[in-house]
Amino acid sequence: MVRDFALLNLIGASRPFLDALDLIRKFANSSATVLIQGETGTGKELAARAIHYLSARRDLPFVAINCGGLPENLVESELFGHARGAFTDAREAKAGFIAQARGGTLFLDEVEALPQRAQVALLRFLQDKEYRPLGGPAVESVDVRVLAASNAELPILVKRGQFRADLLFRLNVLPLHLPALRERAGDVSLLANAFLTRLNQQSKESPKSLDPICLSVLESYSWPGNVRELENLIQRAFIIAAGQPIIAPAMTGEGCGSSESVPESATDEVFTVAKARAVARFEKAYIVALLAKTAGNLSWAARISGKDRSDIARLLRKHGLERREFIPRTQRS
């Protein structure tokens, strides 16, 4: 079973992760709605795809939508489609995501971002499996399995009046929680080596490996960005590494692949102090590389890193960096 999941890019051997895989396998045999919850970067879309591809619907469409990326005034049109002339710019009829997923699976990521009106419309569809395209003359029915995902505490949003309680009940028929990477003992090394193997297969250079010292450092980190953060780091390490084994820009930002990457002076410090200093160096190196890649765009940087925009801004302030430094001169106002 674990091998089958590895082919779907779900890799791990820790007990919490294996428990989640067991639920995915069981949920694939049902058509009930699944609510997948977990921190940013834990692999919620991968889990949704696994449920679909292990199910009887595997040969039919899998349609994934990021609800947070839909313009509020077009959400219903995007979900349910519209008839020609339904609104000013509706020059042609258009099928919505639900119609596109007919017979298959509709995955609603960041479902908490749906505005109230769209929540009502989605609830009605989940109850009856019927919908009316905007401006359409008739109600249409469709067989679609709905999977939803969120990294928000939906019960808290319900109490605040930001998410409908009845919609939460409809979505949360089969709840699936994906554990954070810090809760998955031993999985960091498995994932790091899997990512590196993939990069080696794609590269024309001599194969690279991760030094045990580097793996030890990676295992000791808390990974707030979870699997996505680890994958990004391994990719950066692979690109930057000059030799074999990899001298990865991991926790220090300068390398962790050999004894030379740990200064002798560090052993004169208390472990926690040395670790904090190494983490700070990594943070600065990571944020510099990230902002250089995104030309100072904090929203883009947040999406890549799996962190909030405010966290990126805080790291800039912490390390005395200015966003303006990363914006090309031709774009500065």
Characterize this entry briefly.
The protein is α/β, with parallel strands linked by helices and 333 residues long.
Topology:
Elements: H1 2-7, H2 15-27, E1 34-37, H3 44-53, E2 62-66, H4 75-80, H5 97-100, E3 105-109, H6 116-128, E4 130-131, E5 140-141, E6 145-150, H7 154-159, H8 165-171, E7 174-177, H9 187-202, H10 212-220, H11 226-240, H12 271-293, H13 298-305, H14 309-318
Measured distance between first and last alpha carbons: 55 Å
Main beta sheet strand tally, sense and closure: 5 strands, parallel
CATH class of the largest domain: Alpha Beta
* Mean pLDDT across every amino acid position: 83
Structural class: alpha/beta
| Rg, Cα atoms, Å | 23 Å
Number of helices: 14
Give the CATH topology of the largest domain: Rossmann fold
Domain module count: 2
Provide the succession of SSEs.
HHEHEHHEHEEEHHEHHHHHH
Low-confidence stretches: 247-266
* Beta content: 5-15%
How are the strands ordered across the major sheet?
Answer: 2-3-6-1-7
Overall geometry comes to globular
The CATH H-level superfamily of the largest domain is: P-loop containing nucleotide triphosphate hydrolases
